[in-house]
Structures are given as C-alpha cells and as structure tokens.
Design the sequence.
C-alpha cells in the first residue's frame, strides 16, 4: 500500500470514528465546539471577479449564484461570476497568472495550482480554520492544494465523481444481475452489450473530466506514470497489459469515442445510443429533471457503480478535482478570502451541495452527512469521491510536472493510441514515456 493510500485509510478511519462520536441528525451540522469563527474584513470599495467552470448541472450554478447574492447583500462587495468550459478555464487562468491581470478568484481543475504556485495568494490561515471547524480536509484535497505540506495554494472545492453510469435493464438483458466488480467481467459485459445492440462507450478525446477513466485503466493493472521518486515509469509491462485490455474494451465501444469531449457521452447516453459510460451524476440529474417525458422515464433505469477492480486487487479511483485559487495580483485579498470562507461555511456550502444534486462531492469530512447523500440511494456512490481519490500524479509528488503532464493529456492520449490501433501498446507507452520525461526532469 502506498504512503498516500495508507494515510488516506488511517485518516478515513479516524473520520468515521469522529463522525460517529458526534451523533446523528442535525447535530452533525453544528460547528465543532472548539472552533473559533474567523472573518476577513473586505477592503473599502472591494469588487471581485470569479472565473469558474461552466455547469453540467443547473442546480449547481443556481445555488452558487444564490450564495454570491447573499454574500454581496451581507458585505456590500460586488461579485462578478464568469462561467467557462473546463477546457477554457485552464488557458485563461494561465494567461491571468502570467500577465498579472484578470479574475481575482479562479475555480479550476486538478492540480493546476502547481503550474504557477508563486502567482497565488497564500490561504493557509483560511484553510486551517476550515479544516479544524469541519472535521479536516481529505488527504487528496490537501495533496492538491498543499503539495509542500506547508503553504496552502488554494482551497479544495470538491470533486465530480467519475463513476460508472448504466442502464439497469440493458445490463440485465446482457446477462448480468449486478454490475461487474472486476475488470474481466467488465470486458465480458461490454462484449455482451455490443452483441445485444446496446453498446457502451467512454471518452478518448481530450476530455478534462471524462478521460480520467484512463487513469483507472492504467492503475488497475499496476501501471503508473511515475514512481515515488518522480521517475517516469509509464513504459512498463503493467502498462502494456492495461493497453492490451484497452484495445479489447475499445473494440466494443460505440464508434466516435476517440473525439469525445466531456459533453459527448452525456448526449449519447440520454439519446439512448449507449447503455454504459463513465460520468458524474449529471446524466442522472438531467434525466430526472428533463421536460421530455421519455428521458425523465429513463431516470428510473439509471444507476451508478464504482469502477471495477483490476489485477492490482485494490480500488483505483480517479475523479475530477476542483480547486479555488486566489490570484496574488488581486487588489482585494481580504475580500477574496472572506468570499471563499463564506462559500465554504455550512450555511452556504451544504445548500450548494444539495442544489448540485450530488454533482460535486465535498472536500471536508463534515459534509459526508449532508442530506444529499441520503435523499436518494443512487447519489450515495458519489459521496466519497474526494475521500477515495487518487491524484493524477500518483505515485509521485504533485507539482509543476504532474500538473503539466495532466494538462497535456499524456495518459488519455496513450490509451487512445493503443486502443484504436494507431500505435501498438508498446509504441504508445514509449511515446508517453518520452512526453512525460519532458515534464519530469530529475
């Protein structure tokens, strides 16, 4: 077991024990007795601009904007929120960091903060306050936002769980009473679904969120981009086995997945073109809330499952992590920190979790008890997405190299090349090795 997974297990056990000792019901949402409230006094005339990824779930942005309005009413600080696609936030954030001008606060993905750590405001005081008050941050969130173990480069916002989304009726028609729990049966299911004319499919394009299944694929077979010393080891026998598996799996995909970005599988699933994919809870949310009776009826047939376990023998979950960064160039650092504090407090954060319908899983242990996870049993699999998250830079240390390699889609591109047959598994692994070594210069 890696140091990261061992620590995650121990802290997870401690978190469960702590939650059990608190009690049940609404008492779980009272701040810890020893926590001292912290506030930051906004600068006179402060105005904030927030850049964040655009919605896949309408309730997310509705609840977020309701909290923004509430913040402005309480503080007098005007807040402008710009919504952009995931693929657009990253380059815009990089431009802002390099030019020293742009949004005051940026909500981005994965370990983007490590691309320009010296351009970000230190929010250690705020992070430690929230951690003490709400049961602690999950190790994955801390790894992303505090890679040196000291200074916090930003605050974790949560993660959109990348789980299996499937049609129960079609999986049963393919001969499976329950969703497969291992990679051998997972492949058998995909083959059976194709034979039934109800194929599945997962994104193999440069999809920020949905291509994370490629991390699962490599890790499940024992492969990894780097070792504990940040030495690139992706060209390995374990990776080759994973890519050979990917080729078999891809042969049963619906055509077109090589160009799929994040919206494509949502549309294909809701159009009835595919029966199994990987996604956040947004497909289920869209079906439940669709004005189209046929799509709304589909919701009863949709269910969720964690990814199957591969030859490595342990869960290897990869999810899309969300961060919150305050740019160092902001003229209103106090206002920015107060905004983030306000948005993470239970009076705002829990309604936002519920508004999003489970689309984002919490980064603080305290919110495991949010009503969103018990209101619908189909939501529950997404609850522990941050708790079980293995960072994309596994098994090494996060930093500029891990962030750059993830932003360059090295793993998804390797899987796509091998799966489609444009390169042999060995050729794809060798190319990924060379690309990654450009970032990991020891």
Sequence:
């Amino acid at each position: 077991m890696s140091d990261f997974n061992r620590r995650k297990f121990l802290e997870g056990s401690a978190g469960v024990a702590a939650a059990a000792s608190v009690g049940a019901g609404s008492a779980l949402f009272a701040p810890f007795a020893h926590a001292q409230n912290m506030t930051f006094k906004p600068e006179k005339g402060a105005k904030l601009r927030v850049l964040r990824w655009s919605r896949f779930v309408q309730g997310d942005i509705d609840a977020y904007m309701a909290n923004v309005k509430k913040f402005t009413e309480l503080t007098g600080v005007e807040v402008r929120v710009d919504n952009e696609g995931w693929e657009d936030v990253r380059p815009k954030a990089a431009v802002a960091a390099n030019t020293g001008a742009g949004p005051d606060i940026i909500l981005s993905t994965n370990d983007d903060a490590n691309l320009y750590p010296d351009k970000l405001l230190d929010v250690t005081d705020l992070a430690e306050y929230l951690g003490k008050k709400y049961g602690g941050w999950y190790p994955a969130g801390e790894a992303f936002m505090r890679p040196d173990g000291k200074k916090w480069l930003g605050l974790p916002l949560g993660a959109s769980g990348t789980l299996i989304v499937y049609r129960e009726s079609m999986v049963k028609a393919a001969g499976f009473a329950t969703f497969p729990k291992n990679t051998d049966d997972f492949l058998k299911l995909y083959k059976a679904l194709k034979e039934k004319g109800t194929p599945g499919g997962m994104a193999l394009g440069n999809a920020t969120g949905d291509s994370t299944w490629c991390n699962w694929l490599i890790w499940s077979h024992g492969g990894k981009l780097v070792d504990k010393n940040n030495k690139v080891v992706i060209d390995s026998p374990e990776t080759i086995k994973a890519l050979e598996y990917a080729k078999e799996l891809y042969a049963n995909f619906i055509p077109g997945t090589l160009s799929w970005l994040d919206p494509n599988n949502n549309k294909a699933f809701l159009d009835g073109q595919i029966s199994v994919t990987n996604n956040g809870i947004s497909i289920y949310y869209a079906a439940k809330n669709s004005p189209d009776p046929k799509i709304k009826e589909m919701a009863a047939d949709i269910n969720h499952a964690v990814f199957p376990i591969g030859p490595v023998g342990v869960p290897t979950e990869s999810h899309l992590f969300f961060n919150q960064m305050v740019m160092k160039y902001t003229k209103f650092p106090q206002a920015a920190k107060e905004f983030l504090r306000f948005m993470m407090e239970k009076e705002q954060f829990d309604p936002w979790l519920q508004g999003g319908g489970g689309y984002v899983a919490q980064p603080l242990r305290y919110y495991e008890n949010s009503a969103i996870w018990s209101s619908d049993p189909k939501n529950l699999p997404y609850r522990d997405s941050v708790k079980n998250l293995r960072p994309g830079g596994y098994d090494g240390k996060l930093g500029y190299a891990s962030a750059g390699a993830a932003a360059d889609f090295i793993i998804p591109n390797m899987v796509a090349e091998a799966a489609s047959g444009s390169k042999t598994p060995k050729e794809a692994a060798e190319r990924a090795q060379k690309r990654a070594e450009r970032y990991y210069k020891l």
User: Anything to note?
Assistant: Residues 3-22 form the longest helix (20 residues). Strands lie at 47-53, 78-84, 105-109, 155-160, 163-167, 276-279, 302-305, 320-326.
